[in-house]
Amino acid sequence: MQEQDLQMFDFKAFLFRALSYWKWFVLALILGVYVVYQQNIREEFPYTLDAKITVQDDKNPLFTSNTSLIFNYGGISGKVQEVLLNLKSREHHEKVVDSLYLYLSYLTQGRFYKTDMYGVVPFKFVGVDSAYQVLGHPIKIEFIDNNNFDLSYDFGEAETIATQNFVTKEVKRLPVSQPTFKKRYQVGEYIDLPFLKGSIEAREEAIIPVGKTYFIKYNSFNNTVSSFLRSYVVINEERSPLLTIRLTNKNKAKIVDYLNTSIAILDRDQLEKKNQYAVNTINFIDKQLARVKGDLTKKADSLNDFKRDNKLYNLANETSELSSKISSYENQKEAYEKQLISYDLLKNYLETSDDFTSFPAPVIEGIGDSNIQGLISEMISISSQKSKLEYSVRDNVSIFDDLNRQIDGLKKVMFESISSAKTNIRYQIQSINNKIYNVEREFSNLPESQQQLQAIEREYLLSQNTYNLYLAKRGEAELVKASNVSDINLLEPAKDTGQGRMTRNLNIRYVFAVLGALIPILLIAFIVTFFDHKLHSPNDLKELSKIPLLGVVGKNQSENNLAVLNKPKSAIAEAFRAVRSSLQFMYKKHDIEGSKTVMITSSISGEGKTFCSINIASVFALSGKKTVLVGLDLRKPKIFGDFDIDNNIGAVNYLIGQLSLEAITQKTMMEDLDVITSGPIPPNPSELLIGQQMDALIDELKAKYDYIILDTPPVGLVADALELIEYADATLYVVRQDYTKKDMLQLIKDKYQKGEVKNISFLYNYFNQKGTYGYGYGYGYGYGYGAYGNGYHDNGPKKASLLDRVKGVFRK
C-alpha cells in the first residue's frame, strides 16, 4: 500500500498545497527573522589571546656523580607531553581559579546583558572564603558617594538558595527568610548576611563613580573551572618543545591574568616536583642527624666529665702507637659505615619514590656494588620507557602492567642486593671491631684512668665522624635543591596588545530562519498530500478512470437544494444547463428517442447526489419538458423537504401495489416538474426495486413524461442502485471535490471495465477553483469562475477587493 501511494504521489498537488500555506510561512518567517535579529544584536563576541612557553629538560650538574645513571631515555618529547597533560588537567585549572578568585564576578548592566568588569572595577569584594556565599544571584552595589553604597538583592519567590564554601568547596542550600533586601554600608564595613560575608574595599588610586551601579556574583566553583577548561587550548607541534597556550573569553584582562597565572603555577609545580627528591633526602637525613646528635652530645659530656674528674688532659707517649692503630681501624670502620648510610638512603628512596627516571646524588654516592649500579641503570631505562609510552599508548593497560611488574621485580632484587651488601659491610665492621678489641687489650698494661680516657675518646670520635658524614650528605642535598631550575621557560607572556574580538558572519542565521520556516511547511504539505486520497480537481478523474466526465457543478451558495429555481442566472444554473445539453447530446448519439431516463447515484452519502438530481430535473422542466423526479433512495429519503411536500406516500406505496401512479405523484412550484418521493421506509427495499412493480412503474412514467430523473442510493453502501442501472438511458455518478476518496471509485470502475454498466458519466460536484491548489483546467469558463462570466451570471454579492482579501487573511 505504501509503495502504491508513493507511485501515485502527486508532486504537483504537493507543490500547490505547500504554496497554499504561504501565510503560515510568512508568519513563521517573520517570527524567525525577529528572533534571529534579537539574538544577533545581543551577541557578545569573545577575545582570544595566547602565551608561548618552551619546555627544557635541564639536568642539574650537581644531581649525580655518575653520568651513566642520569641518561633520560624519554627525551624532551616525554617532558613536553607531561607538561601538556598538566596544563590540561582539572587540578591545574582549579589552582588557577582559586589563585585569582575567578568564581567571583564583577558586572555592570548593559543594554541587553550584564558585562564582565574584571580588571577595571574600582573596588573589590573581600569575601570570607570559609563562609557560605550565595551562588548565581547578582548582589547589587550602588555607590552613593566615595564612602557609602547601597547593597540590595531580590531573590524573587525562591524559598531556598544555593551557597558554597570556597575553602571546602561544599555546596548547600539555605532557607530564604528575607527575599528582598536593601541596606546602606560604608566602604570597608563588614557585611554579615546569612549567605554573604565580607566587605567592599576600594582599590588603590581608583576613583569610585558616584551613582554608578555594579553587581557582584559568586559562581559555582566547579562550573567556573569547567568553563575555562572548555575554552583553554594547548597547541604543540610534533617533536617541538614549544607550547602555545590559548584562551578565549569575553574579558581580555581576565585572559591575560589567567594565562600568565597558569604558567606561573605550572613553573612552581614543576620546580617543586623536581626538588621533591632532594626534600625527601633532607627529611631522611634530618631524622638520622637528630639521633646521632643525641649520642654525640652524651659522649662529649661523658668525655669532659671524665677529664675534669681525673684531671687528665694528655695521653702518655707510650699510648701514641696504640692510638695510631686504633685510629687506622676507626677510619676503615667509618668508610664502611658511610656505605651503610648510602645503602639506607638508597633503600629509603626506593620505598618513598614513584619515579625512577633518575637518582639523586646523595642516594647513589658511595654505592660501589657494580651489581646494584647495573640494577639502577636498568630501572632508569624501564622507567623512562614507561614515561614515554604514557603519551602514545595510554589505552594499552597491559603494556604498563608489564613495565610495572618489571620495575617491582627490579626493586625486589635491589632490596635483596642492598640487604646482602649491608650484611657484608657489617661483617667487615665486626672484623675491624675485633681488631680494635685486640689493640685495646694491649691498653690493659696502661694505667686504668688512661685506658678509660682512651675508650671514651674513641667513642666520641666515632659519633663525631658519623655526625659529620650526615652533615655532609645533607649539604649535598641542599646544594642540589638550591641549584635546581624549572624546565619551563616563558618565551612570550600573554598581554593585551589591542587585539580585536573574534567575529563571525551572523547573517547565516537568517538562512536557518528561512529554512526553519520553510521545512515544517513542506513537511506538513508532504504528509497531508501523502495521506490525502480525496479528489481535488476534475482532472483527477481523468487520471483515475476512463469513465467520461459529463460536467462540472460549482459550490451551492443557496439556502436549499433548489439552486436553479432560486437563481436561474447563476453559474450553477448554467452548469446544470450544460449538463442538460451534454445529456441530450448523449441521447442523440445513442439514438434514444422518446422518454429518457437519467439515474443519479454516487459512492457514499453526502456527495450531493440529491442536490444534482433536483437541479437536473429543474433544468429539464424549465426547458418545457415534462419531467418527473423519482426518489428511489428507500432507506434515506431526502427530496421532499426542498419542495415542501410530504413523504407520507411515494414509490414504496406503488411498488407494494397499494396506490396508483397518480396517487403518489405530487406537483411542485414548477409547472412541468412532478415529484415522486420514496414514501415510508420499507423493511425490504432491495426486493421492491427488483420486482415486477418496478418495471410497471418505469413503463408508466415513460408513457407520461419526457424525462425521468431517478435519485438512487449510493452504490458504495448498498447494491440497490446497481439493480436500477438497467432502467437508465444515462447514469450520472456524482463525485464531490475534497470529499470523495479515490478508492471509492474502484467499484464503479470495475463494473465499467467489465461492461456491466453503460452510458455512465461522472458529474463533478462542489467545484471550487480556489480549493484546487492552483490547478487551472478551464472549467470555470462559462460557469462564473473566469473573467468571461462577468455580467452574464448572477453570482451573489460582489467579491472583495485584493486589499480587503489580504487584510482578511491576517484577520483569521
What does the model show?
- By secondary structure, the protein is an alpha+beta fold.
- The chain is built from 24 helices and 24 strands.
- The strands form 5 sheets. It has an 8-stranded mixed sheet, sandwiched between helices. It has a 6-stranded antiparallel sheet with strand order 3-2-13-6-7-10, with no helix packed on it. A 4-stranded antiparallel sheet has the order 14-15-1-16.
- 28% of the residues are buried.
- Mean pLDDT is 80; it is low at 1-7, 62-75 and 773-792.
Compile the SSE list and pairings.
Blueprint: H1 2-7, H2 11-20, H3 22-42, E1 47-55, H4 75-88, H5 90-100, E2 104-109, E3 114-116, E4 123-127, E5 133-134, E6 139-143, E7 148-154, E8 160-164, E9 171-175, E10 180-186, E11 190-193, E12 196-202, E13 213-218, H6 221-230, E14 232-236, E15 242-249, H7 252-310, H8 320-352, H9 361-364, H10 370-389, H11 397-442, H12 448-483, E16 488-492, H13 508-530, H14 538-544, E17 549-554, H15 563-566, H16 571-589, E18 596-602, H17 609-622, E19 627-631, H18 651-655, H19 661-664, E20 666-667, E21 673-676, H20 685-689, H21 692-704, E22 707-711, H22 720-724, E23 730-736, H23 746-753, E24 760-767, H24 802-811
Parallel strand pairs: 17-24, 18-22, 18-23, 19-21, 19-22, 23-24
Antiparallel strand pairs: 1-15, 1-16, 2-3, 2-13, 4-12, 5-8, 6-7, 6-13, 7-10, 8-9, 11-12, 14-15, 20-21
